[in-house]
Amino acid sequence: IFRFLYSDEVQIGPETVMTTLYTAKKYAVPALEAHCVDFLTKHLRADNAFMLLTQARLFDEPQLASLCLDTIDKSTMDAISAEGFTDIDIDTLCAVLERDTLSIRESRLFGAVVRWAEAECQRQQLPVTFGNKQEVLGRA
């Protein structure tokens, strides 16, 4: 961040972009925030759309979140097959499930939601049972 403040140069990579975005927001450096969001937008793909959507929601970046949702809409099967899908939080899952623009059959989406519920049970250290899956899905 200091290099950017003094020289207006920035080196952002996949490993540093989220911490850089966090720091830029924390210290109110909008130009650096814009560089980070631009980097994320350029590197947005179906296989990382859910991870980036979670981060966009966390960092209050509605434009990036909208682009992520558009990517998920267009390539839903690829997006839900990605490793990051089962790591999303319940609010992000609900936001996606509320959409009527997903390009996937309901049966496949249901299977993905069950996978997410199983992962959530494990995160909460609950036995993976029907009842617990129902419980972690809650309002979804």
UniProtKB/TrEMBL annotation:
It comes from the Eukaryota. Coiled coil: none annotated. SUPFAM superfamilies: POZ domain (SSF54695). SMART domains: BACK. Pfam families: BACK, BTB. Transmembrane segments: none annotated. One of its GO terms (biological process) is neurogenesis. One of its GO terms (cellular component) is cytosol. Residues 49-138 form the BACK domain. This is BTBD1 protein. It comes from Grus americana.
